[in-house]
């Protein structure tokens, strides 16, 4: 009896293994959430630290607007960056608060990378352009608000520097 059960288990594991590797891999879809227009004060350079050159960009305000939410970016946050000249990359972590038009406060923590692909032939050939600048914002909204859905998803964003602000285009990974 033990031998029969083992063969049955092996049979089902073999089928499961085959089905897993035979499946098609489909990229997730993206849903546009909003565009944040974030204003910043001049950069503060703390100099070289143990992790690299530390730069702080104080966030002074801004606005955001999308199909499900809109409001303002509150002053008081900052974009904390480490620049590594040898690698041609900057690691960033922006921490700030947004306030919806119905007065709900939402904490935002955005972690990303700015990379200069000119130093990397593989990336340059992939058509990344002059700079690769992507991040993954994490939203912390009150669970009893209509924005609770922000707590339960993964987001990506594409920051684009403009003349007077940084445009941060945010999508939810579906």
TrEMBL record:
Pfam families attached to this UniProt entry: DUF3237
Family listed: Belongs to the UPF0311 family.
PANTHER family listed in its UniProt record: UPF0311 PROTEIN BLR7842
Name of the molecule in the record: UPF0311 protein QVZ41_12005
Organism: Wenyingzhuangia gilva
Lineage of the organism: Bacteria, Pseudomonadati, Bacteroidota, Flavobacteriia, Flavobacteriales
